[in-house]
Amino acid sequence: MPIQLFVDNDACPVKEEVLRVAARYKLQVTLVSNQGMRPVAAPNVRQVVVGAQFDAADDWIVEHAGTNDIVVTSDIQLAARCLDKGCKALNSAGHVFTSQNIGSALSMRALNAHLRETGDIKGFNPAFSKKDRSQFLQSLDMLIQKM
Fold first, then answer.
1. Other C-beta atoms within 10 Å of 94: how many?
2. 2-24 CB burial, b ≥16 within 10 A, e <16
3. pLDDT digits over 54-102, tens only?
């Protein structure tokens, strides 16, 4: 069964890169969003708009992604759910989630949430950089070639 790419599309900064890589490898891409999105006119792209319910996009992706599909998401909890199904997962900065590193990523997420709630840290994420974009492209290409 061919590899498919699923993108947690709300606020995804690497959608264009995913589409470019998918076109090069002739892979199907599904963009999943909670809200409307600009149409993409490409035969290998499917766009799905789910409701605004909490985690609706995540639930749809988990339900439809299969073993050996690749999920692009910055949501660590979604990445963990996808890994449990046998999918590959990576974030927009090119970090590949694995069964070996997802536990520490979930722990750091919980710790940072606690520190934000207590006011010990501010809730700002670093700006998305050209280096992040380049690392994403390299990681996505590497995952596809391995598969």
1. 21
2. ebbbbbbbeebebbebbbebbee
3. 889 999 999 999 998 999 998 989 999 999 999 999 999 999 999 887 7
Domain boundaries, the chain: 4-146
Closest CA to 143 of 60, 87, 104, 82: 87
- Mean pLDDT for the stretch of residues 35-45: 90
3-state secondary structure of 99: coil
Beta-carbon count within 10 A of 124 CB: 7
> How far apart are the C-alpha atoms of 146 and 26, rounded to whole Å?
16
Alpha-carbon distance of 131 to 147, in angstroms, equals 24
Question: Is the domain defined by 4-146 classed in CATH 3.40.50?
Answer: yes
Residue 51 has a pLDDT of: 85
For residue 6, the cross-strand partners are: 30, 71
For residues 64 and 29, is the Cβ–Cβ distance under 8 A?
A: no
